[in-house]
Design brief:
There is one protein chain. The protein has 163 residues and is an all-beta fold. The chain has no helices and 17 strands. The strands form 5 sheets. A 5-stranded antiparallel sheet has the order 9-8-7-4-10, with no helix packed on it. Strands 16-15-14-11-17 form a 5-stranded antiparallel sheet, with no helix packed on it.
Length: 163
């Protein structure tokens, strides 16, 4: 069994976009596929196929970890993680709350203008709550801090996604 754990910060996100361009609708949910979601629990098993009879091949240990749903089969979702590993997870273990992983060290700015006062520095690989996204930037939140970063510095958000 392989394990994936992220030592990072996480907080509650607040939104899910139902309108993702260039997506088809899932046969079982009617939601766009592919789409980003997050893990509901700090203990989530990924399986080699869609069903409990399939062996566990991944153990995820980070609540809020963003993953991308790439296929649906009944109540099961095939997901791809930040490392491009693919596995099957029961749909009840996934949340529409939005989180992202920073692809590099980033500075968040307090009012969305990147020349404004920095509100927080975030290290590469951190899982963090996404409040909302605009054309080329997203607002992130951690505890009492909030700030805006360039959307391209995040994994877990499509570049054309606005919410």
């Amino acid at each position: 069994m392989r394990k994936l754990a992220f030592t990072s910060v996480l907080v509650i996100a607040c939104s899910f976009s139902h309108a993702i361009a260039n997506s088809k609708l899932g046969k079982y949910t009617g939601l766009p596929v592919p789409r980003f979601v997050s893990l509901k629990s700090a203990q989530v098993n990924g399986r080699t196929g869609p069903g409990f009879k399939h062996p566990i091949d991944w153990e995820y240990t980070k609540k809020g970890l963003p993953v991308q749903i790439i296929a649906e089969y009944e109540e099961w979702r095939q997901i791809k993680d930040f490392n491009n590993d693919i596995t099957w997870i029961h749909g009840s273990l996934l949340s529409s709350r939005r989180y992202a992983i920073t692809k590099q060290d980033v500075t968040a700015y307090n009012n969305g203008i990147f020349s404004s006062y920095p509100s927080m520095n975030i290290q590469k690989g951190v899982v963090i709550s996404v409040v909302k996204c605009e054309a080329n930037r997203c607002q992130l939140s951690y505890k009492t801090n909030s700030g805006w970063v360039d959307k391209s510095s995040l994994w877990g958000i499509k570049l054309n996604e606005i919410f």
